[in-house]
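[09:14] KT: can someone run the structure on this one? pasting the chain below
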Amino acid sequence: MAIIIWTLMIKALLTTGLIASSFTAMSLPLTVEEQRISKAQEAMPNVLNTFSAQVNSFEQKFKALSTFKEAKNLVQSYSFELWESGKQQITSSQSYDDRALYWTRLLSSKVIRTHSPQFAITEAQINTLLTLLENGSRGRTDLNYSSGADKKILLTGFDPFLLDRNINQSNPSGIAALLLDGQVINYNGVSAEINTVMVPVRYEDFDQGIIESLLAPYYALNNVDMIVTVSMGRTEFDLEHFPGKRRSVTAPDNANIVYGGTQTSPVIPKLNGRPLPGNEFVKFSLPVSDMQKAKGDYKVIDNHEVTTIEKTYKAGSYGELKNSIAVNGGGGGYLSNEISYRSIRLRDELNSSIPTGHIHTPRIQQFEPETEAKIVKQIKAMLEKSLVAL
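[09:31] RB: done, structure tokens below
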């Protein structure tokens, strides 16, 4: 009886807060990306404060949670709202600025990583919540085609990158993803609905199969009409004809990981712990001639240039590359080339008929909203011109 009474007393004291609960607060160290927040706050406070009210509200709600189920529900709804807010803000302000969503996502993951709710949360549960935040705030939970348009297009963009060089860097492909998501385009009596996803610039995510898990359902069912990956590239638009398999650059990703590949010793990426399978080069299948008709400030180049162990040249056909070792695909040897390679390799493996390929946009210096507006306008025109071939 004494034990029962003592147990009830302890529960009562815990409930009233007169004594501390026995569990240890769980906190994880900041990631490299999160560690840049303070520098970014100094460099561009207006960008990081864009959604400060939402982040502060999320933090207060997170700290008050009493169960893991409540935590999952909160993060799922908040991450979806963050994606929607990111799109609405860039549309209403016409700022052509993708940076607010990127940095707000990091501010939000920092909350999850460093603050404790009112229950004994585990590291595994924290990681689950971080995954939910990533998926929702990158548009992966918003891939619903509901307009009834004739065609369906899936497009991916990238986060800003090389941030230790320019902390205020923007990425035109991210702008395109935010502005084009949910849009219905029309050309010559054919309509198409566009859905988009934002992709992280992290080698580990690619090695863990983020691209394959995103795209496999579409290729397996052939239930969209075109898949277009987009990243920032050179001086004009390049349609990358022959993506290569290997990583061959010394540039770090956003986690400051340098993968180890070089121009003389390119390395094969991983897929779920094993070497990425597939040929050294793959061939894209976007309607090139139609997309090249898109008028704008930039040329649209059908880029056949590749680098093999032997040489750099413009491959006239896919057959020329059959016995070559890839160093650079058309898109280089970084993740922009790799997202194209992985998507096309998967398409071919699953015997899909979905036209797939990569658009490299003109490069910008840090943040150039007027230039980015022109880039997005011409990407949209490319997608419109492609409809006659789908």
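[09:33] KT: thanks! Residues 189 and 388 are 9 Å apart (CA to CA).
[09:34] RB: yep, looked fine to me
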